[in-house]
Specification:
IBH1-like, Transcription factor PAR1, 72% helix, mainly alpha, bHLH_AtIBH1-like, transcription regulation
Length: 151
């Protein structure tokens, strides 16, 4: 199964430039490949399976097999009642809904699991940014070397 995901990621990148419909299409393919790499880097996490499922649905496959934990805005508010004032409960529920939208599959998670998945997702995003910076630096150096060599 893992090889199938990797093959799809590579096939998105390897498609020849002449068969692409231009710059935007290549950009879309790079974005999908980067997101698939992100999803594959943290196998076993709910957000990773949800992201991979979303990407595979775009390509034509799908189903992550995750169970929903049923965190609804009203459930969040019920969980927080008694801990803080009404305005604070409403504000906390609003912030949790926003967090649920940011983390792939976050709508399906209970509050404690949402925080765990968020922390792991942020770490994975940081790793992805570091890799992309390294690639950009490498490509920049190769381009500079190519110009110096007269290419």
């Amino acid at each position: 199964m893992e090889d199938q995901g990797n093959n799809k990621t590579l096939s998105l990148i390897k498609t020849s430039t002449s068969s692409n419909s231009g710059f935007l299409e290549r950009g879309r393919r790079i974005k999908v490949a980067a997101e698939m790499g992100l999803a594959e880097s943290s196998r076993g996490r709910h957000w990773s399976r949800a992201l991979r499922d979303r990407l595979l649905r775009r390509i034509g496959n799908g189903a992550c097999g995750c169970q929903k934990e049923g965190l609804t805005p009203s459930k969040v508010a019920e969980d927080l009642v008694g801990e803080e004032g009404d305005d604070e409960v409403i504000e906390m529920a609003r912030k949790l809904r926003a967090l649920q939208k940011l983390v792939p599959g976050g709508e399906d998670l209970a509050m404690d699991r949402l925080f765990e998945e968020t922390a792991d997702y942020v770490e994975a995003l940081q790793r992805q940014v570091n890799v992309m910076r390294a690639l950009a630096s490498l490509l920049g150096m190769l381009e500079k070397e190519k110009r110096l060599m007269g290419g």
